[in-house]
Design brief:
heterodimer; A: alpha+beta; Uridine Diphospho-n-acetylenolpyruvylglucosamine Reductase, domain 3; Enolase-like, domain 1; 3 domains; 5-stranded antiparallel beta sheet; 4-stranded antiparallel beta sheet; B: alpha+beta; Aldehyde Oxidoreductase, domain 3; Aldehyde Oxidoreductase, domain 4; 6-stranded mixed beta sheet; 28% helix; binds flavin-adenine dinucleotide
């Protein structure tokens, strides 16, 4: 479908954007980098309507580390900026790793983390790290601000805790400390510009004395209507001595948390196996680093 | 033509490089003639259906719509290069999803698109036949009246059964190969208009302006001299623009409305309605003696040509010709079938039927080497063809045959000699590495089909040359290479060569740009033209100086007498010609030598063959099935490299396309519906998937080629899939027999052999 007869409204401040969103509720669609939206509108996946172009709102483009070890990322921050940020690379490295796998250089330059979050693809690469790092999504409207833990932000396939007059303005994480570690894993069908068949992020906290993981979070994408936490798997790696067999058992436990489907990128059966194997590979990496 | 080479062999930057890099080069899709109408094509929704009724009345009255055309507007509604089986616009039936039914011409693209939705087509769906094996059964639904066997033939030499009885080792496998889409950057595109002389002009991406003109004129029933076809820079073709795409539809719009038009396929239209590489099934039974000497090869080839033949019959010939690899095999037996189905139309694609069968035979060779516990390169060398040998069809190989040399280079390459070390360099227990080798062969030129081309050369007033060829610049760099050849032949600077190309009004017919032979053909015709031109100039020099013509030789834009005392510039010669009404142009011609086709074939054998060997280092993640090519070494038998940069580009590009073919490019077709209609799902290699590629040419010279050059356009893709597959076998111990070797396929293959937890 061709896109024509569409008005593009470009606000000059967040306040103005929120104003327009509330006055034209439901009759205007937010566009940030446009890397999802334009394609979906062209393909008729989402209805054609006027666009609120927030791409120029630089006030939503930042990466900050505050005194309380909290990392704040503005919604419009691009994946290039995230992948290259010293703060993210040091204190949220699994997000930096994920960011550097989003599409190609061109896509990374344009695509925003806010767009990735709101587009809510189960395969979105920023989401497993955000789940594993227990991120908080900050939402704004002309009525004020709200904060939502990432896991409760998603209520089902592309169902969000986000009203029509709301914008995502920030995502917030706790900076990882020296005794924390993590891996991001992505299995795509080629090396560049690949949408994940399965992706996963693992975060662990090491007990320095025992060398065991005293806490862990495992999140997987593209295997359920939303990104999922693999809680049974987490239990099997916390405070346990991990050898090859116990890592495989823990990895196999992710099957309890996922419900993959068949699609053009892979069969459900293949996705099940990939979920297990990716988590195994991740655990292997973590246990072979320094533990 | 023995003479000093000043330009040939040099890495001269391509003249189109800068203008393409900065976006100045004009492709057909960049053209917007004033007052144009936007063309759009309505395509079939069913893989197989009768058309009961087409009602275009409401579409016609839609605001902005100028005309809507159906089959009723096409006087001769069938075309095709071998068999006129394809409608310009469907009449009785549709035979695949995407078959064109109507063409809309409107003032805006929006109106054109809206009008498509207003055309009513009443279909009577028919059972579709989508599996070539099913299609071959007599009781299957018929795609065409004549049945689903488009072509079937059997060629045998010697006695394979006897050889199988005497063999020490026999390897038998069934290989399946998928459908590959050309995926060029520029989709099928063109414009049309009446020029100032009232000539219907079509400017469109293609590979042969004369053949496109013929198809336009024969279907629309108009005289050939009333139509001009121009092919500007083309954003990739790879064989996919060998067939008609937008040309006839454009001509129809402009002919009937008297207005300019533009028709550019969307990416989805391109993947659906563009031609593709034949998917197929290849069964092979190959026998060898204990010492590695090949005794027999029995091959069954089934290629799915989809709804229409296109160039399928010739593609099948090339498969037949090359399915025994570049080897001497005394007993061969080939049965080959081209099958119609309600799938997408397959026709020409770089390699033209050879990549499929080379995947098979090169996998067979590897399996034999393994059974005999013999080095795979040694096995290949023991059987490799050499110049002067008699090939499998009892055909004497008179041209250059560089495969043994290429294999020797491969055997001595560090990647091969130290493959043990390369394989051990992996950091994770689930990562396995392997090194594989493969050879390739393919004829260039049109084989036993008549093939002749002309080139025009004109001396300009300034003493430069205008060279006229109908060769098309499809990204391969033929124009730059021809300029270098022309400069050396006409003894002038390369910048003194101006090329006029691919225009039925301005250039003579240099035949089609395909079969890896445009440089060979045009270069030879150019040699003839250069000889004639220099002869003419020699006589002018004689007239100007009073010295006999024989004393003149040519160098750097001057005719110079033997004693060096008389120097006459080309510009002086040009002026003299003008003043004395001596026509300053000549036409050179070359007819490609050929032999009679062997019974049961159309165009084989060729007299001239290209060869290559390739090595691949592949890394397999046994826990995901993902195979990554880490390094490729490609060793093409080039005859003589005219431009090293262009050569490297051609071989690298072909190699990466080969990686796509081997590992990821998979046109998924379910119930006749293409599931991979754009690049989000039809995966071609990204730059990150392109490994280090080392290109080492064998330059033994081919006396019949210009300055010793032979074809190189297709050979680079052919050895890649088997080399990659053989490397995967080396890495994980299982032999992939189906390409593309996607991660999921390879994963299950590894699982079936090693059980859970990969192979570690
Ligand atoms: C070639 C290609 C490759 C890709 N590869 C990947 C990949 O590897 N991994 C991956 O995860 N994704 C990939 N994507 C998808 C896409 O790039 C990402 O999802 C990207 O982050 C979307 O961001 P955007 O700024 O472009 O969002 P847009 O397209 O502008 O918007 C996406 C959606 O979010 C809404 N939206 C955007 N910003 C806000 C906001 N601040 N508040 C409220 N709503 C908002 C829009 O209304 C829209 O519904 C790819 C896309 C393409 C085209």
């Amino acid at each position: 479908m061709l896109l024509y007869d569409i008005d593009v409204i470009t606000p000059s401040s967040l306040d103005e954007a929120l104003e327009i969103l509330s006055s034209r509720k439901g009759r205007v669609k937010v566009v940030a980098g446009g890397t999802d939206l334009i394609i979906q509108m062209k393909d008729g996946i989402i209805p054609r309507m006027d666009l609120l172009n927030i791409y120029g709102l630089d006030e939503l483009r930042y990466i900050k580390l505050d005194d309380n070890d909290v990392i704040r990322i503005g919604a419009l921050t691009s994946f290039s900026e995230i992948a290259g940020s010293e703060i993210i690379r040091r204190y949220a490295k699994i997000l930096a790793e994920a960011a550097s796998t989003v599409g190609s250089i061109q896509i990374m330059n344009k695509a925003s983390i806010g767009g990735n979050i709101v587009n809510a693809s189960p395969a979105a690469d920023s989401l497993p790290p955000l789940y594993a790092l227990d991120a908080i999504v900050k939402v704004a409207s002309s009525r004020g601000f709200r904060e939502v833990p990432i896991e409760s932000f998603y209520r089902g396939y592309k169902k969000l805790d986000l009203a029509e007059d709301e914008l995502v303005c920030e995502v917030r994480l706790r900076a990882m400390s020296d005794d924390e570690d993590g891996v991001f894993l992505k299995h795509g069908l080629r090396l560049g510009d690949a949408i994940a068949v399965v992706n996963a992020a693992i975060w662990v906290k090491r007990d320095n004395r025992s060398g065991l993981f005293s806490d862990a979070r495992v999140a997987l994408g593209a295997v359920a209507p939303t990104v999922v936490r693999a809680r049974r798997c987490e239990q099997l790696i916390i405070n346990r001595r991990l050898d090859d067999d116990s890592m495989w058992s823990a990895a196999r436990a992710v099957l309890e948390s996922i419900s993959p489907i068949d699609d053009v990128r892979g069969s459900a059966e293949y996705r099940r196996e990939m979920s297990v194997n990716l988590v195994y590979m991740g655990l292997w990496e973590l246990t072979h680093r320094s533990g | 033509m023995a003479q000093a080479q000043r330009w040939v062999g040099k890495p001269i930057p391509r003249r189109d490089a800068l203008e393409k890099a900065i976006g100045q080069a004009k492709y057909a899709s960049d053209l917007f003639p004033e007052g144009l109408l936007w063309g759009k094509v309505l395509r079939s929704k069913y893989p197989h259906a009768k058309i009961r009724r087409i009602d275009v009345s409401s579409a016609k009255s839609h605001p902005g719509v100028v005309a809507v055309f159906t089959h009723e507007d096409v006087p001769n509604n069938r075309y095709g290069l071998f068999n006129k089986d394809r409608p310009v616009l469907c009449d009785d039936k549709v035979r695949y999803i995407g078959d064109p039914i109507a063409v809309v011409a409107a003032e805006t693209p929006e109106a054109a698109e809206e009008a498509l939705g207003m055309i009513e087509v009443e279909y009577e769906p028919l059972p579709a036949v989508l599996d070539p094996l099913e299609a071959m059964k007599p009781e299957s639904p018929k795609v065409h009246e004549r049945g689903n066997i488009a072509r079937q033939t059997r060629i045998s030499f010697g006695d394979v059964e006897q050889a199988f009885r005497e063999a020490d080792v026999i390897v038998e496998n069934t290989y399946t190969v998928g459908t590959q889409i050309h995926a060029y950057l520029e989709t099928e595109a063109g414009i049309s208009y009446f020029d100032e002389n009232g000539r219907l002009t079509i400017v469109a991406g293609g590979q042969s302006p004369y053949r496109d003109r013929h198809e336009i004129c024969s279907t629309l029933n108009i005289p050939e001299d009333s139509v001009r076809v121009v092919i500007p820079h083309v954003g990739g073709a790879f064989g996919g623009k060998d067939d008609i795409s937008v040309q006839i539809h454009l001509a129809l719009i402009t002919l009937k409305t008297r207005r300019p038009a533009r028709l550019v396929w969307t990416r989805e239209e391109s993947t659906i309605a563009g031609t593709k590489r034949h998917a197929g099934i290849i069964r092979m039974k190959t026998a060898a003696r204990r010492d590695g000497v090949l005794l027999a090869n029995k091959t069954e080839i089934i290629y799915d040509t989809g709804a229409y033949e296109g160039l399928g019959p010739a593609v099948l010939d090339v498969a037949i010709e090359n399915c025994n690899g570049p080897y001497k095999i005394p007993n061969i037996d080939i049965s080959a079938t081209l099958v119609y189905t309600n799938n997408y139309v397959a026709s020409a694609f770089r390699g033209f039927g050879a990549p499929q069968v080379l995947f098979a035979i090169e996998s067979q060779l590897d399996a034999i080497a393994e059974r005999l516990n013999m080095d795979p390169i040694e096995l290949r060398l023991r059987n490799a063809l050499r110049r002067g040998d008699v090939g499998v069809f009892n055909n004497k190989l008179i041209g250059s045959v560089g495969i043994a040399k290429a294999l020797e280079i491969a055997a001595n390459h560090e990647l091969w000699r130290e493959r043990g070390r390369y394989k051990s360099e992996t950091a994770r227990p689930w990562i396995k590495r392997g090194v594989g080798v493969a050879s390739a062969i393919k004829g260039y030129t049109l084989g036993a089909l008549p093939d002749k081309g002309q080139v025009g050369v004109e001396l300009t007033r300034e003493g430069k040359f205008r060279v006229r060829v109908s060769s098309t610049e499809i990204g391969q760099g033929v124009l730059a290479a021809l300029a270098q050849v022309a400069a050396d032949m006409l003894r002038c600077g390369v910048d003194d060569i101006q090329l006029v190309f691919a225009d039925t009004l301005e250039t003579p017919d240099t035949s089609v740009t395909s079969a890896s032979r445009q440089l060979f053909l045009a270069g030879n015709a150019l040699a003839d033209a250069a000889r004639k031109m220099l002869d003419k100039m020699r006589h002018v020099a004689a007239g100007l100086s009073g010295e006999p013509p024989e004393v003149f030789d040519f160098l750097d834009g001057y005719a110079i007498s033997r004693d060096g005392k008389t120097r006459i510039s080309y510009a002086e010669i040009a002026r003299y010609m003008e003043n004395n009404n001596i026509p300053p142009h000549v036409v050179g011609e070359y007819e490609v030598p050929r032999v009679e086709p062997i019974p049961g074939t159309l165009e084989i054998p060729h007299l001239f063959y290209m060869f290559a060997a390739a090595l691949a280092l592949v890394e397999v993640n046994t826990l995901t099935g993902f195979a990554q090519v880490r390094k490729l070494v490609v060793i093409p038998d080039a005859g003589k490299v005219i431009n090293p940069q262009t050569f490297q580009g051609q071989i690298e590009g072909a190699a990466v396309q080969g990686i796509g073919y081997a590992l990821m490019e998979e046109a998924k077709i379910e119930n006749g519906i293409l599931k991979t209609q754009n690049f989000a799902t039809y995966l071609i290699p990204s730059i990150k998937d392109a490994p280090e590629i080392e290109v080492i040419p064998v330059e033994d010279g081919e006396e019949t080629g210009p300055f010793g050059a032979k074809g190189i356009g297709e050979i680079g893709i052919i050895p890649i899939a088997p080399a990659v597959a053989n490397a995967i076998k080396d890495a994980v111990g299982v032999r992939p027999t189906s390409i593309p070797i996607t991660p999921e396929k390879l994963y299950w293959l590894i699982r079936s052999k090693h059980g859970e937890k990969g192979s570690h």
